[in-house]
Recover the amino acids of this structure.
């Protein structure tokens, strides 16, 4: 059996184009929902996965309708595969019911994983280059060096309670402890 899955993120978006394409692709049953793809709990997707049987094929118009991230897509396709079913994405022309389709799916997944790692690598390189130029990222310190010295003086010499010092400088007790 061919089972279609259609999803839009908001109530004002329309499912008609997806359901029409899934029907044209031979979907005998279509599970449709209006919910963000970032939500892992998607009732219609869960229903579809529960009803999958050996030999079924899950069809989507585009793979991003099924999952928001590569990791999510791989997990869902793995669940589909574990039930003996196949996966088909119309826009990307991916069909895991064939050996060539499985190869293409895994090549795309590998390329996407490589790209994610490259983005992470470029971000680290950019942060290191900025650091070498004297730019420091992150949140500015709550206390200046002079204020930290004053906090230490109040704590050690005046023996003031941490809570009082924190209130005086309008910071948390944790910030005073770190100082």
């Amino acid at each position: 059996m061919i089972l279609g899955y259609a999803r839009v993120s908001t109530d004002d978006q329309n499912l008609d184009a997806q359901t029409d394409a899934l029907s044209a692709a031979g979907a005998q049953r279509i599970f449709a929902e209006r919910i963000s793809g970032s939500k892992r709990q998607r009732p219609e997707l869960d229903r579809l996965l529960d009803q999958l049987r050996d030999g079924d094929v899950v069809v989507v118009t585009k793979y991003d309708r099924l999952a928001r991230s590569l990791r999510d897509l791989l997990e869902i396709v793995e669940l589909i595969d574990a039930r003996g079913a196949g996966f088909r994405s119309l826009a990307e022309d991916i069909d895991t019911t064939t050996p060539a389709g499985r190869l293409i799916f895994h090549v795309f997944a590998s390329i996407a994983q490589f790209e994610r790692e490259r983005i992470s690598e470029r971000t680290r390189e950019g942060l290191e280059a900025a650091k070498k130029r004297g730019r420091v990222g992150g949140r500015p310190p709550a206390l200046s060096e002079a204020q930290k010295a004053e906090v230490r003086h109040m704590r050690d010499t005046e023996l003031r309670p941490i809570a009082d010092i924190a209130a005086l400088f309008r910071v948390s007790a944790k910030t005073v402890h770190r100082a």
Notes: The chain has a mean pLDDT of 89. Residues 99-132 form the longest helix (34 residues). The CA atoms of residues 10 and 34 lie 6 Å apart.
